[in-house]
Design a protein that fits this description.
Helix content: 25-40%
Mean pLDDT: 94
CATH class of the largest domain: Alpha Beta
Number of domains: 2
Strand content: 15-25%
CATH topology of the largest domain: Rossmann fold
CATH architecture of the largest domain: 3-Layer(aba) Sandwich
Largest sheet: 6 strands, parallel
Radius of gyration: 22 Å
Distance between the termini: 12 Å
Low-confidence stretches: none
Length: 425
């Protein structure tokens, strides 16, 4: 079988994955069966959190109030919950004001009240309330350095938690004695609640010493106030067993693996054999592209680990060590590495895209690679290797019409990758 329209097939798989994590679908089944005796206060942060708030309003006929912060462009109109926008991935004053207001909302609550926390990927940068003695500029400087160094989301969030007055369980601890129900959409490899949005409502197993070790590993010298804060460690995050967190209930309502399974079912209905490689693939984006190309080549030439027509599905979050001045992002860079490793080998096509609809700074979700992508690039005078060196994969894919543009999806279950072996071209 040679698929006549691989681009449409791959896009259909992406949309199936996103639909599986639609807040309107996943939030209602996780709601309590009845309201608390007192107030219901909603707080939240992340790329999916406004859509989660909208779903909560539709399916919660009882009184509620609250505040949710989302990245610019991700707002959804709500009637009872206030939605505000802030910068992402580098935090700004709007996110700081929203985080401060959330603590003010939950601090006076009592045991008969309920806090519902709507947490999703991107929430860590949005909940940016510096710890005592630190400034927003301090946090921005550290965040930029970690992103440029190619640190993993686990490492970035470890540092963020120890520079924060709200992350790492501090939001739920502030709400105590009110119980907290967290509804979370995972965007991190392993689905660790302590890592998703830096775990504002769960215990933090990491320490200030761990945060210092991350900075040392990447050779990052933080602002003097940050180093002094971490070395002094006067206000550690709540740890497992903390009494203030024992009334918290955490419900993971969507995760990357379920989205990959939804894409696999869509592939099966089209007569294409799916193979899920994993939902937690990490590493340098371009290097993962090379690995995926090697597996695709083995499928095409030897029928292993799957015979064509087949599609290799994977999730997780890659990193990019920034050396150039291009627009990124990691999924487009993964696809450029993939294309270069295949060197125009026929019957293989791929898509890598962020399920939130935003990959890097260019406005695309990711990019397609088709059997003739490199040939079309060179015919236009584009140098694929130069674009990779400059971290400017999107600058190559856009002129070819191979950028994948969706706009914000208002959910986020991390990167989605599909490699089709058996494409035409």
């Amino acid at each position: 079988m040679r698929m006549a329209d691989p681009r449409r097939f791959l896009a259909d798989l992406f949309h199936a994955a996103v639909a599986a994590a639609d807040p309107e679908r996943v939030v209602p089944p996780a709601l309590p069966s009845s309201p608390p005796p007192g107030r219901t206060v909603v707080v939240g942060a992340g790329k999916a959190s406004a859509a989660m708030a909208k779903a909560l309003e539709r399916h919660w006929p009882h009184p509620l109030e609250g505040l949710v912060v989302v990245p610019d462009g991700h707002a959804v109109a709500c009637t009872r919950i206030t939605i505000v926008e802030a910068a992402h991935p580098v935090p700004d004053e709007r996110g700081m004001a929203a985080a401060r207001r959330m603590l003010e909302l939950v601090r006076p609550l009592g045991a008969e009240d309920l806090v519902i926390a709507l947490i999703s990927g991107g929430g860590s940068a949005l909940l940016t309330l510096p710890a005592d003695g630190l400034t927003l500029a301090d946090k921005q400087a550290v965040n930029r350095a970690l992103l440029a160094a190619g640190a993993t989301i686990h490492e970035i969030n470890c540092v963020r938690k120890h520079l924060s007055a709200i992350k790492g369980g501090r939001l739920a601890a502030t709400a105590f004695p009110a119980p907290t129900l967290t509804l979370a959409i995972s965007d991190v490899p392993g689905d660790d609640p302590a890592v998703i949005a830096s775990g504002p409502t769960v215990a933090d197993p990491t320490s200030c010493a761990d945060a210092l070790a991350v900075l040392a590993h990447y050779g990052i010298e933080p602002p003097a106030a940050v180093r002094a804060h971490l070395e002094r460690c006067a206000d550690e995050s709540p740890k497992p067993g903390d009494l203030r967190l024992q009334a918290s209930d955490y419900r993971l309502v969507a995760r990357p693996l379920e989205s990959l399974k939804a894409a696999a079912r869509t592939a099966e209905r089209a007569g294409v054999r799916p193979l899920i490689l994993g939902d937690a693939l990490e590493g340098e984006a371009r290097e993962l592209g090379r690995v995926l190309a090697g597996i695709a080549r083995a499928c095409r030439d030897h029928g292993l680990p799957a015979a064509p027509p087949c599609v290799l599905l994977s999730g997780g979050e890659t990193t990019v060590t920034v050396r150039g001045r291009g627009r990124g992002g990691r999924n487009s860079e993964c696809m450029l590495g993939f294309a270069l490793a295949l060197a125009g080998l026929g019957e293989i096509a791929a898509l890598a895209a962020d399920t939130d609809g935003i990959d890097g700074r260019g406005g695309a979700a990711g990019a397609f690679v088709l059997p003739d992508t490199l040939a079309r690039a060179r015919a236009r005078g584009l140098d694929p290797r130069a674009h990779l060196t400059d971290n400017d994969a999107l600058g190559l894919f856009e002129p070819l019409g191979d950028a994948f543009v969706t706009g914000p999806t208002r959910t986020n279950v991390n990167d989605f990758r599909a490699v089709l072996v058996g494409a035409s071209g």
